[in-house]
Design goal:
Elements (H helix, E strand, L loop, with lengths): L6 E12 L5 E15 L2 E9 H6 L5 H11 L11 E8 L1 H12 L2 H5 L4 H15 L4 H7 L4 H5 L7 H26 L9 E10 L22 E8 L5 E8 L4 H15 L4 E5 L7 H12 L6 E7 L2 H7 L16 E4 L8 E6 L1 H30 L6 H15 L5 E5 L4 E5 L1 H9 L3 E6 L8 H9 L1 H14 L11 H24 L24 H9 L11 H9 L2 E7 L5 E5 L4 H8 L12
Parallel strand pairs: 5-8, 8-9
Antiparallel strand pairs: 1-2, 2-3, 4-15, 5-6, 6-7, 9-14, 10-11, 11-14, 12-13, 15-16
């Protein structure tokens, strides 16, 4: 007999069944039941089997859920009728980069709190998450929490330019703090710094620094600027200087030595640069500074010799002989032309093979061009010593191997042949390079000198981050000299942020977390098996997906902050969308919860 009293509820009963094949299956039945007391005991009466009604398509799952909620005392309203999603702002990527900026103390590093500092901080964060021109960045700020929370969403172009001018005036003070943090003290016990120069092209005709010069990007036909970056041994950028596009490497080196000595106040440092940067003339200048009692400094260097200098060392009576490499790939030698310096001679077999291959290809390609000229002369289509000479000069210049050919030109003939003696002499030095340093062996042994020089790869990595991979410094749209300097400095500070983000997010990206140590410092660097596995499977050992650094930022950008407005009230609240496991882990690696707002 059915009861007419007692409260009704929805009961879900799960049952487990193991079939004949040993497979375990779980079934859920849903009942509408009434609960009542009988003789002091609680009884349940089944009023309906809701599972059967669902199986007959008479009662959809949503209706069962609604019945269950109603019986629990909840008031149901039509979906979307209780609130409105008023606005969504891009949040996750900006919040993560801002979190790292605060962790590094970047706002305090920039200067005292003010409108210009907020604008510069927003420009730096925006350069990391979405590099674009200043005007494009300004237009995007109202749609991001970076712009809204830092109070710059309604900034004007004049304010942007004023903030850039403010930053240029503070550049020396900012770099001095970075240098004190990373180039001296316990953070850099070797007292070593890397330095290199690169270039970027300029579009337009009015930039005060734009000049035509040697383009390290291979971009022909456009003026450029040069900029030099000073980093610690790990490649963390500390300072940057911008020069006209026709500035030579040694001039930039002289400038940075002056900055280190006078602006940073560092009196002991080892500067590492390539052979084009730290030349013999620059080394002589460093010696004079070191010997001057008024300067009271001790600057060392690690650089490399040029090919003609190596050839002189390898002469018949020179100290650089192939027998040095019979049992090892490096050896320390001396020569009276380099007083007070140690010379570390290295031979890389893989580099030797590559140089031999490249030379063979260039010679073969030049042979083909010269043979075509011989055919034209013999067929009478090209005559006159002047015209033949121009064609030959153009052919020899294309692949830059003219030193390996002998040519004979008359008004009616042209012949050529390879200079096998020169080719053999050059081939004998394939894969050989010689480093020069003033650092004593007690401080750096030969292997450590080689490793210190190879650390220049870290600054090359910075150049790729600044130029193309992450920050898109080029092309440069600014005209005034100080605005160009501010633009490059913003990119350098963004690179500083990116350096730390890449390190913290290594488990989520393809970055090699634990590159193997080199037993032989001359041998090429190798990736770890763990990094190779990540690259091959696109997942980590726990089967979590890994992404590129830029891909991770794009994924974080899908974490939005939504403004919810409740109907018939004055209540509006901000709420984050539910974070994915990878988004949560990205903030965990920064030792921070996911913030609702971005603080300056």
């Amino acid at each position: 007999m059915r009861r007419t009293t007692g409260s009704a509820h929805v009961a879900r009963v799960k049952k487990t069944h193991v079939d004949s094949q040993g497979r375990r299956r779980v079934y859920e039945s849903v009942y509408l039941r009434r609960t009542y007391r009988e003789g002091g005991k609680v009884r349940h009466e089944t009023l309906a089997n809701l599972s059967n009604l669902a199986n007959l398509s008479m009662l959809p799952d949503a209706a069962i859920t609604a019945i269950e909620a109603t019986l629990k005392g909840q008031t149901l309203v039509a979906a979307g009728s209780e609130f409105t999603l008023a606005r969504s702002l891009r949040h996750g990527d900006g919040a993560a980069v801002a979190t790292m900026a605060r962790k590094l103390g970047l706002p305090e590093l920039l200067g005292p709190a003010c409108r210009s500092r907020d604008l510069v901080l927003a420009l730096i964060i925006s350069r990391v998450i979405d590099p674009a021109s200043k005007l494009a960045t300004l237009a995007a700020w109202p749609d991001t929490t970076v712009g809204v929370d830092l109070g710059v969403a309604e900034a004007s172009t004049d304010e942007i330019y004023a903030a850039m001018d403010w930053l240029v005036n503070r550049q020396g003070a900012i770099e001095k703090k970075l240098a004190a943090k990373h180039l001296s003290g316990s953070a850099n016990p070797a007292r070593m710094a890397l330095f290199d120069l690169t270039s970027s092209w300029v579009t337009g005709r009015c930039c005060e620094l734009a000049q035509r010069g040697y383009s390290r990007d291979g971009k022909k036909g456009l003026p450029q600027i040069n900029y030099a970056v000073l980093t610690d041994p790990q490649g963390r950028p500390v300072a940057v200087r911008v020069f006209p596009g026709d500035t030579a490497d040694p001039i930039a080196f002289t400038e940075i030595v002056t900055v280190v000595r006078t602006t940073f106040g560092i009196d002991k440092l080892v500067l590492v640069g390539d052979r084009g940067m730290i030349t013999s003339a620059r080394i002589d200048a460093l010696r004079q500074l070191n010997d001057d009692p008024d300067t009271a400094i001790d600057y060392g260097w690690i650089s490399a010799l040029r090919a003609p200098q190596i050839a002189r060392l390898a002469a018949d009576d020179g100290p650089l002989q192939m027998s040095l490499f019979d049992t090892q790939d490096l050896a320390e030698i001396t020569h009276p032309d380099y007083p007070g310096e140690r010379l570390i001679a290295c031979r890389n077999p893989a580099l030797a093979i590559e140089r031999a291959r490249k030379r063979s290809d260039l010679l073969a390609s030049t042979d083909k061009l010269l043979a075509a000229i011989v055919g034209r002369v013999e067929a009478g289509r090209l005559s006159g010593a002047g015209e033949i000479g121009k064609a030959v000069g153009k052919a020899l210049a294309k692949y830059k191997v003219s030193k390996h050919f002998h040519t004979t030109i008359t008004d009616t003939s042209f012949t050529y042949h390879r200079d096998q003696a020169k080719i053999a002499a050059e081939a004998a030095l394939d894969g050989i390079y010689v480093l020069r340093t003033s650092v004593e062996a007690a401080t750096l042994d030969p292997a450590a000198v080689v490793q210190s020089y190879k650390n220049l790869a870290n600054i090359e990595r910075d150049f790729r981050i600044i130029k193309t991979d992450d920050l898109d410094l080029r092309p440069i749209h600014h005209r005034l000299e100080d605005r160009v300097r501010a633009h490059v400095f913003i990119c350098m500070l963004a690179c500083y942020l990116t350096w730390h983000l890449r390190k913290s997010w290594a488990p989520l990206t393809f970055t090699d977390e634990h590159p193997p140590a080199r037993d032989n410092p001359v041998a090429p660097a190798r990736r770890s098996a763990h990094a190779d596995a990540k690259a091959a499977t696109k997942h980590d050992p726990d089967d979590n997906p890994v992404r590129s650094f830029r891909g991770l930022l794009k994924h974080l950008a899908t974490l939005t902050r939504d403004r919810i407005r409740y109907h018939d009230t004055d209540i509006e609240i901000d709420k984050l969308t539910e974070a994915t496991p990878q988004q949560r882990r990205a903030f965990d690696l920064l030792d921070s919860p996911i913030p609702l707002t971005i603080a300056a």
